[in-house]
Amino acid sequence: MPLAPVWSAPRRIGVWLTNSPSPLYYKPQRLESAVRELSEAGFNTLYPNVWSRGTTFHRSSWAPMEPALVQSGASHDPICLMTSAAHRRGMRVIPWFEYGLMEPADAAVVRSNPEWVLQKRDGSSTVVMHGKEMVWLNPAHPGVRQRFLGLIGEIVQRCKVDGIQLDDHFAWPVELGYDPYTRALYQREIGQQPPDNHTDRTWMVWRRKQLSGLLRELRATLKRSGQGSPYVSLSPGPFRFAYNHWLQDWELWALGGLIDELVVQNYAYSLKGFERDLQQPALVKASGWGIPVEIGILSGFGGRTTPIPILSEKVRLAAERGHGVIYFYWEGLWGIHSGSEGPNLRQSGFSALHRNLRP
């Protein structure tokens, strides 16, 4: 049964797009047709991945280009091409800097700048993420900040995008911060060495402030440049986990005017779990903060594909609470992870769902 319209004003209907695993970025014709299909299916915002696994999807002054894009011999810039195709159709493009401050442990920037890398109390620095050894660069270090701001600034200026998005990898993992640089900075500012307990509240607050400071500097830099949009979207996990494990205080960032949009990831597979997560206190409060609050919904990835009837009910539950929806991810709509329903049924299903959600 079709859903009755439930939005009183236009809201975000978006999707994350990435190369993993997807051939999307490597042929201009494929990008053009993808944007056309999404526009016809009622999507109004695209979140293309631009920073992943220590590489970019364009020629950058700050980091290497993604190897597969180099090997494809492509001469196009996927993000600029996607932005141009989307803008012609009245859609917005908000590039997604997925890996934030995280780098592969064997990345050249890590080998060249070991003093930029955060450490655990035992002196180790690697964290296994996505099945690979990763490290986190120090958001308090001036060199890290300059590189991070440069990575973001160049794509904003080059492609004239509508903003940028950070996610749960824009973080300071709570067990990290015992490297020599951070120890010295904490000693200078607080007058003592960091405590052995990495969950000590004073120690956590100090590190959260360093992360917030980088976000504040990003905002100021984007506004000062005057090129492209200073719009900053954030896509974190649930507040308590983000706050206690990643030192992301997204409530403070929203209330302090450091972010313009909040996209809270809710990848619970069951409807009951999804609805329960919509009732988290911080998310309920966020609706009154004066910024758009969207919900990240799993459309399909790997072995998990959410059927259209369940997706429709999840979208309804989010929309009833005034939230837009962002799907993870492109290939889970009607692509390689379309599941047993198949591409044709899913593409028509998304089109019907979004038609019924328009005011």
Write the layout of secondary structure elements.
Elements: E1 13-17, H1 28-40, E2 45-48, E3 51-52, E4 55-56, H2 67-71, H3 78-87, E5 92-93, E6 96-97, E7 102-104, H4 108-112, E8 127-129, E9 132-136, H5 142-159, E10 164-167, H6 180-190, H7 201-225, E11 232-235, H8 239-245, H9 250-255, E12 261-265, H10 271-278, H11 281-286, E13 293-298, E14 300-301, E15 304-305, H12 308-320, E16 324-328, H13 331-334, H14 342-357
The residue ranges in which pLDDT falls below 50 over 5 or more consecutive positions are 1-10
Please give the order of strands in the largest beta sheet.
5-2-1-16-13-12-11-10-6
Content of β-strand = 15-25%
* SSE-based structural type: alpha/beta
Put the structure in a nutshell.
The protein is an alpha/beta fold and 359 residues long. 41% of the residues lie in helices and 16% in strands.
Characterise the protein shown here:
The protein has 359 residues and is α/β, with parallel strands linked by helices. The protein folds into 2 domains: 1-93 and 266-359, no CATH class; 100-237, no CATH class. It is 41% helix and 16% strand. It contains 14 helices and 16 strands. The protein has helices at residues 28-40, 67-71, 78-87, 108-112, 142-159, 180-190, 201-225, 239-245, 250-255, 271-278, 281-286, 308-320, 331-334, 342-357, and strands at residues 13-17, 45-48, 51-52, 55-56, 92-93, 96-97, 102-104, 127-129, 132-136, 164-167, 232-235, 261-265, 293-298, 300-301, 304-305, 324-328. The strands form 4 sheets. Strands 5-2-1-16-13-12-11-10-6 form a 9-stranded parallel sheet. Helix 1 runs parallel beside helix 3, helix 5 (142-159) runs parallel beside helix 7 (201-225) and helix 12 (308-320) runs parallel beside helix 14. The longest helix has 25 residues, at 201-225. It is globular, with a radius of gyration of 20 Å. The two termini are 18 Å apart. Mean pLDDT is 92; it is low at 1-10.
